Amino acid sequence: ASAECCADALLTLINDILDFSKIEAGRLALEQLDVELSPLVEETATLFARAARRKGIEVATLIEPTLARMIRGDPTRLRQVLSNLIGNAIKFTERGEVTVEARPLLAEKGTEKFEIAVRDSGIGMAPDALTRIFESFTQADSSTTRRYGGTGLGLAITRRLVTAMGGDITVTSTVGVGSTFSVTLTLVAAASSVATKIRRLRG
């Protein structure tokens, strides 16, 4: 089990470095595909349910029914952003739950603006740590790295991916209470999503 954990950690590190290098070199190509947003959020959160249960914590999703059904975007990178945030939330939470919330925001015609927030009841971070948490090879402090491991690249990659998609990521946190990472994105509405809305309006 120990060898397997080391192999997984090494693979994660290699993938993170490759991703980071690609982004920094400006070679990140984003796909534009029709994406079913709610299932993507649900399925990504479900992937972490077993790891959460092993720690005695729950993963819950709260998706507003008015969230856009279909958007145009890169499903792989959207999942990567969500996976990084949910994985981090579980890693730094010893009890309680991790909640993934998705809700629509006001958007211009032809676009879909939405927010996905990953909320945990974990260790939280001090205000000074929040200013550097998205920097490369950085964690809240050295004791965090020793206790929880990690490459210190996950959040740096996440922020760059969100930025590449034209979005924004913010964090609020209280030591001993937990953290909330919020991603706001404005993506093109998929034609099928627009058609569905028109059919609904026509009854």
Describe this structure in words.
This protein is an alpha+beta fold and 203 residues long. The protein has helices at 2-24, 37-47, 49-54, 75-91, 127-130, 142-148, 154-164, 191-202; strands at residues 33-36, 58-63, 70-73, 97-105, 111-120, 168-174, 178-189. Strands 1, 2, 3, 4, 5, 6 and 7 form a seven-stranded mixed β-sheet that branches. A hairpin with a 5-residue loop joins strand 4 (97-105) and strand 5 (111-120). Helix 1 runs parallel beside helix 7 and helix 4 (75-91) runs antiparallel to helix 7 (154-164). The longest helix is centred in the N-terminal third of the chain and has 23 residues, at 2-24. The chain is globular and about 45 Å long.
SSE map:
Elements: H1 2-24, E1 33-36, H2 37-47, H3 49-54, E2 58-63, E3 70-73, H4 75-91, E4 97-105, E5 111-120, H5 127-130, H6 142-148, H7 154-164, E6 168-174, E7 178-189, H8 191-202
Parallel strand pairs: 2-4
Antiparallel strand pairs: 1-3, 3-7, 4-5, 5-7, 6-7
> What pattern of helices and strands is seen along the backbone?
HEHHEEHEEHHHEEH
Can you tell me the overall shape? globular
Main sheet record: 7 strands, mixed
Percentage of β-strand residues: 25-35%
Total helical elements: 8
Q: Distance between termini?
A: 57 Å
| Radius of gyration over C-alpha positions, nearest whole angstrom | 18 Å
Give the beta-strand count: 7
Proportion of helical residues: 40-55%
Mean pLDDT: 81
Structural class: alpha+beta
Low-confidence stretches: 194-200
